[in-house]
Structure formats: C-alpha cells, structure tokens
Task: structure prediction
Amino acid sequence: MTYPANTPSINDMLNMPTGDLAQMPVELLAALQTELDHAGKQLKAATTRFNSALEVRYATRAAEARRACGKDTGTVRLVDGDYTVVADLPKRVDWDQDLLAQIARNIADSGEDPADFIDTKLTVSERKYGALPEAWRRGFEPARTVKTGTLKVTLEPVEAQK
Result:
C-alpha cells in the first residue's frame, strides 16, 4: 500500500494537536497506522539487535563480576571508558504449585499457620465464573471487580465485495 502524498510523518504527528489528528481523513489515519506499525516493528528489531550486542560485549565480564561477589543473579557495575555499565540479571523463581500445596498441608498438620510462610492468591477464571449457575454467580459478585484495559482501535480496509 502506498501512502498518500499528504500523509504527515511520525515527527509531524508528534507535534500535531490530538484533535487535529483525530479530524484527518480515515485514509490518512490508516496510512499513519501502517507507518507506525512498520516503525514499531523496526524499532523492536533494532532494540533486540542492540541488546544482543550489549550482551555479547558485557555478559562475560558481568558473570565474572557476579562470581567475584559470590552471587549468581543481581546487578553488577562495570566500568567501560567514561561509562558505568549496569548489568542486571534478574532472578526468576517458579514454584511447583502441587508441592507447595503439600508443604502447606504439612505446615498446617504440624500446628503452624501456612500463611506465615506461603502467599496464596485466590482467583476464579472468567470461563469458570461464566459456567456457574446464576444463583452461585450472584454469591461471587461481591468479590468480583471488572476493570477495562486500554482501548485499541485498528483501521482495516473493507474487503472487496464478491
């Protein structure tokens, strides 16, 4: 799809009042949306490549610095010329839910409160909530809050009539 000649650039759009942008013909809005999608994909690919290059350059030094501190994860600071390189390797912990449930039962059986050691978050999936009988759903309603996300509007060309 070629862009109309009068399509504002992304920089033009950033300086344009939102109301003016909203009043543009739908064809220009669709062209801008396509341009933004393309630019977003390019930026994401460039960011991925750049981050890979930083990893290639600093990962070994950062791992050595962590080892010297006696840690496998976390943040270390390296000096490279006039810059401080902050290399953060976050810790991601997953817990086996079945085993934790058994541990919680063992703690309770020993007379202790599992809540002193284990955080529990109760939730109901929307699929299961929707499948509940109406009377049951009414009982759940006081505990349920529905929030909305951010509206996303996409412009798509109308399919040609066959």
Q: What stands out?
A: Residues 64 and 70 are 10 Å apart (CA to CA). The beta strands are 74-80, 83-89. DSSP finds six helices and two strands in the chain.
